Amino acid sequence: SQKIEQNSEALNIQEGKTATLTCNYTNYSPAYLQWYRQDPGRGPVFLLLIRENEKEKRKERLKVTFDTTLKQSLFHITASQPADSATYLCALEEDNAGNMLTFGGGTRLMVKP
Amino acid sequence: DTAVSQTPKYLVTQMGNDKSIKCEQNLGHDTMYWYKQDSKKFLKIMFSYNNKELIINETVPNRFSPKSPDKAHLNLHINSLELGDSAVYFCASSQASVTYEQYFGPGTRLTVT
Questions:
Q1: Are A105 and B44 inside 8 Å of each other by CB?
Q2: Residue A71 — left, alpha, or beta (φ > 0 → left; ψ -120 to 50 → alpha)?
Q3: Over the stretch B41-100, which tens digit does the pLDDT of each residue have?
Q4: Which DSSP category does B73 fall into?
Q5: Which string of b and e fits A41-52 if b means at least 16 CB within 10 Å?
Q6: What is the pLDDT of residue A49?
Q7: Beta carbons of B101 and A34 less than 8 Å apart
């Protein structure tokens, strides 16, 4: 069966450090992978998309890698800030799936000042 | 301006009732979605809809039905509500023909008693 796995345990880091979150998947052949941020009581907010033929994507302090051989994506936040504290979700859509995304369970990030 | 809005924000109702949740997007997007986020925070796609095609996640009971009066609206109707329907429901939209990122509404917390 298809699975998307993110570390369900919260990640606690000190302000200024780099946070690294992991997304592993099985039995998917995704055309692209997306990362979203979700704050309590709010809907997810799109952050980055990386395609199957891209190894790395950056946006300001965010960096995403995508290894289709390992079936894994890493999401990095450099120079983390307390405002980065949230739950981060990865999402996949297989080819020809009507843009329907399947989300991982999310990883909660806590950045301490 | 609110991009994707939902009403109501909270909905408390009894088992067996029929209820609707409304969703509107002012982004001019061509595709809208409904997601369910359960108590364990897993976000699951329910429907994907554009003016040509409705795609239904096969796990969604037929008590749930999306209805789109026009391109900017996708309402969710739920018949014969059950306790297990209690969750947060998110509407989202995207311009699927151009990009894959999805914009989410603030969510509707449904509680069935």
A1: no
A2: left
A3: 889 999 889 877 888 787 899 999 999 988 899 999 999 999 999 999 999 999 877 778
A4: B
A5: eebbebbbbbee
A6: 94
A7: yes
User: Which CATH number characterizes residue A35's domain?
Assistant: 2.60.40.10
Q: pLDDT tens-digit profile of A48-95?
A: 999 989 989 999 999 999 999 999 999 999 999 999 999 999 999 866
Whether residue B14 contacts residue A71, with contact meaning beta carbons closer than 8 Å, is answered with no
Q: Find chain A residues with C-beta within 8 A of B101's C-beta.
A: 34, 46, 49
**Greatest C-alpha distance within chain B:** 42
- Other Cβ atoms within 10 Å of A3 Cβ, number: 12
C-beta atoms of B42 and A41 within 8 A: no
Q: Is the per-residue pLDDT at B23 higher than 70?
A: yes
Residue A94 lies in a domain: no
Q: Is residue A104 part of a domain?
A: no
**Closest-CA residue of chain A to B46:** A100
The CATH architecture to which B4-106 belongs is: Sandwich (2.60)
Structure tokens at A78: 């450099």
Best of B45, B59, B74, B93 to mutate (most A CBs within 10 Å, chain A): B45
To the nearest whole angstrom, how far is the Cα of B42 from the nearest Cα of chain A? 5
In this structure, is residue A91 part of a structural domain? no
CB A81, CB A111: distance < 8 Å: yes
Query: Which single residue is written with the structure tokens 């880091």?
Result: A13
Residues 6+ apart with CB under 8 A from A86: A37, A38, A39, A108, A109
